[in-house]
């Protein structure tokens, strides 16, 4: 009996890696920056994105607003005048809510507004946000030489003007948020936000119109956010 032939394996084409354009501070394009698929090419879960944003915003609330009830207001409990014979409305003490300076009915009290989201959900939402921004072509790169520019606001303003991004919410992701010339040149622009790579979060991504990664920031990103993925 002739031996049965083994089924041939179908060769699958390797998909090309993800990449974003990298710009010089002059606004000219200079090469590309490769992105890890594990973070920038995942299924987008919009419900999880909404949950992550809600948790983040709730956790920013201090919850320290506080008012005093009539029992907590300092003052006498003496009846301000007799019950009858004055022709005026009946009143008790001066701390009643009807009086200016009196207690507050149903006012705010200190409250914990914090919410929780588990680690896997947080990571998945984070990668979903990055994938969404990339699909919208709103993630770009910037050369590391830009960190050494002269500390002049006009240089960064001209860079954004050259790319037609003036007036838009821009976030620059730095390898480390420290005092350097680029930080000094950017901090006076109201729509520009600076954040170190390790502090990047889902809310900051979604709240930005454009996201710029410094070349060295992507190396920090891979080490910090993908260290558990590669294990």
UniProtKB/TrEMBL annotation:
GO molecular function: rRNA binding; structural constituent of ribosome
Biological process per Gene Ontology, one example term: translation
Keyword Cytoplasm in record: no
Keyword Protein biosynthesis: no
One GO CC annotation: ribonucleoprotein complex
Pfam family, one: Ribosomal_L4
Key words of the record: Ribonucleoprotein, Ribosomal protein, RNA-binding, rRNA-binding
Gene3D superfamilies (UniProt xref): 3.40.1370.10
Assembly mode: Part of the 50S ribosomal subunit.
Family designation: Belongs to the universal ribosomal protein uL4 family.
Function comment: One of the primary rRNA binding proteins, this protein initially binds near the 5'-end of the 23S rRNA. It is important during the early stages of 50S assembly. It makes multiple contacts with different domains of the 23S rRNA in the assembled 50S subunit and ribosome. Forms part of the polypeptide exit tunnel.
PANTHER family: 50S RIBOSOMAL PROTEIN L4 (PTHR10746), LARGE RIBOSOMAL SUBUNIT PROTEIN UL4M (PTHR10746:SF6)
Protein's UniProt name: Large ribosomal subunit protein uL4
Provenance organism: Candidatus Roizmanbacteria bacterium GW2011_GWC2_37_13
Lineage: Bacteria, Candidatus Roizmaniibacteriota
